[in-house]
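Figure 2 data, in text form.
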Amino acid sequence: MTDVEPRTADLVSLYSAMTKETMPQLACTTHKNWPVHNDHCFQRIVLDTVCEGVWYDHLQRPAYKHLSREQALQAVDLCNDIIAGKADLVALNTQSLIWRGKLPPNQTSG
């Protein structure tokens, strides 16, 4: 019998590849309108969104070693939604920056 559900480690590996390679590459080619281009920015936005706040207030460092299976699955799903244009990266980045105190809560994107 084979397990059809991806293992947590596989999900974390996929999340890492998407945020470290795929998304930064897209940001420099076909998705130039994205507000961020660096891998650590994509990781911040995705992890903050999954944690619904500053990720390191919810997870031990390094985050990838401490993600639950559900969090890793949410991270992969969110990356896919961002890439497909189903999730608003500008809004997610703005919310992440608000949680971090970098923007006032009434900040609008655009």
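Caption note: Residues 8-99 form one domain.
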